[in-house]
Amino acid sequence: MSSPAITGLKPILVWLTRKFGKNTSKGASHPNSNNASTWPNPWKVVVILEELAIEDPNTDLVLWESGAIIQYLIEQYDVNKTLTYDGLKEKHHLNQWLQFQMSGQGPYYGAASWFNVLHHEKLPSVIERYNNQLRRVLGVLDGWLEGKQWLVGDKMTYADLAFLPWNDRIDAVILCAPEEKFAGFPNVQAWHERMAARPSWKRSMDIRAGLMQEQGLENATGRPGRFKSHQEYKAAIAAGEDTTETV
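^ glutathione transferase, sequence as received from the core. Prediction below:
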């Protein structure tokens, strides 16, 4: 049953904005702008370095940075504590794992993705470094999950879910076969598969794929399909070209 505290809410808007570089959307501004009409369209503006932002009309709050957004949504709307805990230790352990995701998984997986897939020059020592850092993160998680189902307590929480998107794309990040992406990390694999089997995750990925296809974007890189490389795409943005796809 829905809680009275979260009925009759207006939809929360989600935006992707370019963090650095020229924006090709007319009148686009930083997500902290009070004029939402000038923000980039989240599907028409394609990003190189993106910043996730939300606008919550229920509280008149604009917020960016994924970790801060997760914490806000949990504190504001998870009134039944479905994905969190009330206890002192559990709350701080959840925050600990979220901080590890933001400082460890996100940056290292992102760097591995860039140098494996997008960088114009293959730099073996750099690729090795970031692939090893990715595996180090998996090793920390695998060790902690030994004998456990979830990171904190006896249920899935927002801390577990925070790791799901990047881990789901490891094969695309380090260019390995999908069945090999968790090789050597059986606890992480079982944990990941428990979350990825959820209907809500499958539905989200189907929606994402449909929106990407609708906008003519590559599912793996997010760039418009007509650009053959990330360098070509960056050059078009720098030149002020309209990089949106017409499909």
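The chain is about 45% helix and 5% strand.
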